[in-house]
Amino acid sequence: MPNPRAYCSYCGRLSKRCACHEAGSNLQRFLERGGRSYAPCIRDAPYKRGVPPQVKSAERRHLQKKYKIWYAALAESNGECCANCGETKDLVLDHVLPIAKGGSSRLDNLQLLCTTCNRIKGKLAIDCRRATHRE
Length: 135
Fold this sequence. Notes:
By secondary structure, the protein is α+β, with helices and mostly antiparallel strands. It has one domain (about 5-130): DNA Binding (I), subunit A, CATH 1.10.30. The chain contains three helices and four strands, in the order βαβαββα. It starts with 6 loop residues before the first strand and ends in a 14-residue tail after the last helix. About 25% of the residues are buried.
């Protein structure tokens, strides 16, 4: 019997209220764009909720200060392409665990995504870095 307090690892909702498995969901669109399929992933605790605006602002300021350095570091280590679909144009830094869910602006929480993938991903917590350079 599934745990009634299980949470979706992608969106952070209770798994029984999660819509990530439905066709046409943001997660499905994001994964299809990267040539991957949906695999349910469950957490036993929710993501941090109610991150104060002061924390969000501080994290964004920290990212802005280090943006060029971190972009160059990620481009060098993972290649200058989208970690999801491989696109090489219009790349931006993306938080693997979004600031809104308690993520931080540190190099180990960032990945390069194209603007389209970043827009589709939104506040989902998806790590595409290990899928980089798939052939």
